[in-house]
Design brief:
By secondary structure, this protein is α/β, with parallel strands linked by helices. It has one domain: Spore Coat Polysaccharide Biosynthesis Protein SpsA, Chain A (Alpha-Beta Complex). The chain is 43% helix and 14% strand. The chain contains eleven helices and eleven strands. A seven-stranded mixed β-sheet has the order 3-2-1-4-8-5-9. The protein has a two-stranded antiparallel sheet with strand order 6-7. A two-stranded parallel sheet has the order 10-11. Helix 2 links the parallel strand 1 and strand 2.
Amino acid sequence: MKIARMPSYPMCNSIASLIAFVLSFSIHFIRFTYNKMNRKSLICFLTVNPGKLFYQFVKQIPNPERIYICIDRSNHEIPGYQNEIKLIKVDKTKCEQKGFKNTHSKIRGATSREKALYYFCTHDIDFDHIWFIEDDVFIPNITTIDYLDNKYPRGDLLCQENFVVNTKSDVEKSDWPMWDNYSIKTKYPLPWAKSMICAIRCSKKLLDCIQDYANKYGELFMCEILFNTTALHNNLSVLPIDELSGIKWRGNWRKRDIKTNYLYHPVKSIPEQYKLRSRGSHDPKTLNTALILGIICGISLIIISLILSF
């Protein structure tokens, strides 16, 4: 009868050391990945007078403590509101006096966008990034924003495009008519840059630069130019991402067009957003963590099996 030979003590010690190393590496890797996926990201919805259906969807987004709804009409009350989500209602005059005004092409003064910028620039709130999303942007799933934050942990501006004009000749050649009408209000010299900004993510550094501009000049400038141009002149990183390519001035979105991890504009009807919305998707953060753990465990088992076979 053949008796299996037990590994010698030195070999056992080597195996134990290797296992300890693999486990230590795995723990550090998981911590690094978890911290990367959990950089503090807020969400602020820009609205005029949000209704009950819109509010019901917002409440379903994970971690509601990081979500804000900025309401342009300060006297508006959301039907069925029960304090689950923070509301921003800012006095228009106070906002304008601090220079947060005139980002809209047709509306002078402060709208919900300027009020939200004023709020997050002047309050002591801890965050790395913040999403500004108009209420007519269609979000396919309650975990879509988390997916984008996990995929793009860095970047001072996530946006739909970053179209840059370097000279007056570039402005004249561009088919975008707003350069001549509104860009002259910016105090930044050329180059300028633009994007659709119905859904964007900004870093705290970018908001600090916008606040500095408002303090210095007493007003802002057209929103489609504001974010990209401010980032450009302050050497901040701008990432146009595929998932925001559905942010357009006009669009007629159908269910077959929708990708779960993309955002779409415009879908003005909130009931229509509900019809388009996908169901049954899983939290991408949970899936990513489980996948990482599975890979690490698998590699560890393979290494240990190879060692024991010698």
